[in-house]
Specification:
By secondary structure, this protein is of the alpha/beta class. The chain has 19 helices and 16 strands.
């Protein structure tokens, strides 16, 4: 992201001219003024990416200009120029918000280098904002897809609970979208503009969890070479998401309970506590009530976490949501093949997707669609683009329609046989070899019957 418009501010005409020549030769759009007051007028009249200003000027010096300019445009990149002996003022300007300074006299390449560094900083800042925006958009409640009664109940609970500070316990199988719901609770709360900090309690070694969660002071243990702020403190004012809470070791369960009760953090090795204001959302794929009965999880901590419980249904419980989810993921991964957009999903492919049991739930479905998008040859997602284990999954036997008006076993057998052959050919996309396998017929017998019944396949 290159700077386009640069404003030069210097009371020396020769310096203004020199800088303008240097920067214009390198493709910058440049305007130059002689003092801070004229610079403020320029900033009010036009958009500038960067101001390059002298520190020592009559009427309004560079420091005063910096403060005034940043009041109106906090994101403006400001670089000061200082002659020998004014470095202290230049450093003061940087403390006030200037990005960098250039010492006079300077070589042309020195000025350009500082501008290039500022450009890279601006590019990274804008990219960071873009990624944050995309990430936040991806976790909006609108992206929790489900028209089924089970998911509509989850969405109703999210909207009702989000504005409150009450602790929420999310339960459900792996891949059902617990972090997505946790972020939606944060996004719809008054804390949305403050930190959302996620901690996977099952991914951190037991001996490090306390330090990660609550922090430590220098010298608290062998590797504690400096003070460290814990993730609970990082989330101050926002939401702390404790994923896989069922994996928390018993000693930490006691400390978490105290944290929830007192809303205080005490770092490892510290003698004092500090108040924090966080909303806690916990999630688990385990049956915590059973864990309580088996003595693996503290009962008092369970009730403290389960102030509001939201259960996320498995994908098996809401197969009617699969077509909408598939459409969402197809649109999401269309970027992987922009030159060949998909027109949809074939009937047999959708039947296979709906018949599969999805042990990995929505996460597994997303990965299956992403894989299919990468491997697909046609404009329609076909059954052959799906993973082998998914295509091989057993499917419900179609209902057999018996002919009306007759009790003839011979006639009924022929009609049922024709129905089954047509269904097998439809299910395999016309693949006669696979259809014969499904029907438990030899390939030659199937060809004979296709001809006998006049089936076009």
């Amino acid at each position: 992201m290159a700077f386009r418009n640069v404003l030069i501010v210097d009371d020396e005409e020769s310096m203004r001219h020199l800088l303008a020549v240097i920067l214009k030769e390198r493709g910058y759009e440049v305007r130059a003024v002689a003092n801070g007051e004229d610079a403020l007028k320029e900033l009010a009249a036009r958009d500038y990416d960067l101001v390059l200003s002298d520190v020592r000027m009559p009427r309004m010096d560079g420091l005063a200009l910096l403060k005034k300019a940043l009041e109106g445009q906090p994101d403006l990149t400001f670089i000061v120029m200082s002659a020998y002996g004014t470095h202290t003022t230049a450093i003061e300007a940087m403390k006030a918000g200037a990005y960098d300074y250039v010492s006079k006299p300077f070589k042309p390449d020195e000025v350009v280098l500082v501008l290039r560094k500022a450009e890279e900083r601006l590019r990274l800042a804008r990219e960071n904002r873009r990624l944050r925006t995309e990430l936040a958009a991806g976790y909006r409640i609108e992206n929790i897809i489900g028209a089924s009664d089970a998911m509509q109940e989850v969405l109703r609970q999210i909207r009702k609970v989000a504005p409150l500070k009450a602790t929420v316990l999310l339960s459900g199988e792996s891949g059902t979208g617990k972090e997505l719901v946790a972020r939606a609770l944060h996004d719809l709360s008054p804390r949305a503009s403050l930190p959302f900090v996620a901690v996977n309690c099952g991914a951190i070694p037991a001996e490090l969890i306390e330090s990660e969660l609550f922090g430590h002071v220098k010298g608290a243990f062998t590797d504690a070479s400096r003070d460290k702020k814990g993730l609970a403190s990082e989330a101050d004012g926002g939401t702390l998401f404790l994923d896989e809470i069922g994996e928390l070791p018993p000693p930490l369960q006691v400390k978490l309970l105290r944290f929830l009760q007192e809303e205080e953090v005490r770092r490892v090795g510290d003698t004092r506590s500090e108040k924090v204001d966080v909303r806690v959302v916990a999630a688990t794929a385990r049956d915590l009530q059973r864990a309580v009965k088996e003595g693996q999880f503290r009962e008092d901590l369970f009730y403290r976490l389960n102030v509001v419980g939201i259960r996320l249904p498995s994908l098996r419980e809401r197969p009617e949501d699969i077509p909408a989810l598939v459409g969402h993921f197809l649109a999401k991964y269309q970027r992987l093949r922009p030159e060949a957009p998909f027109s949809g999903v074939s009937g047999p492919a959708m039947e296979a997707l709906k018949a599969y049991r999805w042990p990995g739930n929505v996460r597994e479905l997303e990965h299956a669609v992403e894989r299919a998008v990468v491997l697909a040859d046609g404009s329609e997602l076909a059954e052959g683009d799906l993973p082998d284990d998914l295509r091989a999954a057993p499917r419900p036997t179609p209902p057999v329609v018996l002919p009306e008006g007759t009790l003839s076993v011979k006639r009924a057998t022929r009609e049922v046989e024709e129905q089954l052959i047509r269904k097998a050919l439809e299910q395999t996309g016309g693949n006669r070899t696979r259809a014969a396998e499904l029907l438990e017929l030899s390939y030659r017998a199937l060809l004979y019957k296709i001809k006998e019944y006049g089936i076009i396949a």
